[in-house]
C-alpha cells in the first residue's frame, strides 16, 4: 500500500503452495483427493485474506499449467547447462502400500535424541534434520507396517558447481544489501560446511511431473517447485511476467 501510494509500479502476489507430501498426508486423513483438498483450502485462504482486506493483485496457487510449464523449463535449462546429476538414494518402501515413503509418510525414533515420534525429514523435539532411513523402528503412517530400505534413482542440483560463483555474489550482496544477522549467519554456515548436491525429485504422484525419460514416474521435490510459484502466479496474472522477474535494474 505504501508503494502504491507513492505511485510506484507495484505488483503484490501470493498464493497457496499445494504440492508435496504434506498435502498427500492431509488428503488421506480427510478422505479427499489432493486436488479436492487444495481446492477447499485455497478458497478458505482467499476468503480470509479478503476479510482482512489484504489486497493482492493476484492470489494464485501452484497447481496450474503455468507452474508446470515454467518449472519444467527451468529444469530443462539446468539440465542443458550441466547443473544436474543423477545418483541413487536409499529410501524406505512400504510393500503393503506398494510405494516409496516420502519423508512425511514415515515416523520413527529419532537417532539423535530418542524422540519416538520423529518424522522422516526432521525431529520436532531436538530440531535435527534426518534422513528417513536413519530412523529407528520406522513405521508407515498409512498402514503402520514396517518399511524396507530400497535403492531408487533421483536427480540432484549440483550445488558444489555453483559454490564459487555464489560466494562471490554473496560478498557483493552482503556489502550492499540489508541482510539480517540471522540470514548472514545461516548462509555462512552452509558455505563453511561446503555445499552438497541437493535432491530435486521425489517418488510421488502429486506434484509437477519430471520431463525426463527414466524419471517420468517421479515429480519435483516441493522445495524445488514451490518458489517457482511466485513466477507462475505472476504469469497467471500477466503475460508480461518476465518483465517483473528478469529486471535486475529494478
From TrEMBL:
| Top EC class, one word | ligase
Q: Name one GO molecular function term.
A: methionine-tRNA ligase activity
| EC annotation from Swiss-Prot or TrEMBL | 6.1.1.10
InterPro entries to which the protein is assigned, alphabetical: Met-tRNA_ligase_1 (IPR023458), Methionyl/Leucyl_tRNA_Synth (IPR015413), MetRS_core (IPR033911), MetRS_Zn (IPR029038), Rossmann-like_a/b/a_fold (IPR014729)
Domain of life of the native organism: Eukaryota
**Keywords of this protein's UniProt record, alphabetized?**
Aminoacyl-tRNA synthetase, ATP-binding, Cytoplasm, Ligase, Nucleotide-binding, Protein biosynthesis
Q: Which GO terms describe its biological process?
A: methionyl-tRNA aminoacylation
Asked if the keyword Transport belongs to this entry, the reply reads no
Family label:
Belongs to the class-I aminoacyl-tRNA synthetase family.
The molecule here is called: Methionine--tRNA ligase, cytoplasmic
Q: In which organism is this protein found?
A: Cinclus mexicanus (American dipper)
Highest lineage ranks of the organism?
A: Eukaryota, Metazoa, Chordata, Craniata, Vertebrata
